[in-house]
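Sorry to interrupt, but I need a hand with the structure work. Please put the record directly below this note.
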Amino acid sequence: MCRWVLVLPLVLLAGLPAAEKDKDGSKADQQKEDKKEKGRPLVDFDAFLKEYDRDKDGSLSKEEMPEWLHYNFARLDANKDGKVSKEELEKGVALLQQRRRPSDVVFVLVEMSDCDECSAEELQRAYEFLHKLDKNNDGKLDAKEIEAGRTQIVKDRVDAILKRLDADKDGKISKDEARGAVKEHFDELDANKDGFVDRDELTAGASAKPSDGKDKPTKDK
């Protein structure tokens, strides 16, 4: 049975209001507590520093920070002096909340799986891809290796598009050959307006970051 089926009812029940018999009393008490909480800071920064500041210098190094905050240390350390002061904690209070990281999907695949063979297949695929990115085989990934990996992904994507759409094998795609997204965005992709989309133009299109729409010109009314 899928483990989510067992977990979901417990999650739903946890969010339900208190039983009817103590509805009025507990609701009033809760409102009083809520009013008290509004005047309190989300984090007691003095207590936080006292708990983790092992060398008692009034700030926290990355090693002193709890492990779940290492991810945000660089963002908390606004002046880049290698330590986080009380003032930086106060300014970065939103970063002190423990949140899921994108990479936690790996842990979810392992922990929540109800089909170990399926999870193993997905994890193996991710492992092989990451292993290929580690060109110097040092067991770590750096920014240059990530950039190289992104370049290779784009190249493979462009190669696949040309192989599928370039019917006459002249290294570019005409309007008649275009299909799908290439046809839909043909005029945008055809940067030099020669009536064809070549490899460089496909690469530029495949490498472009998604637009938020803010840079689109507005039409005069």
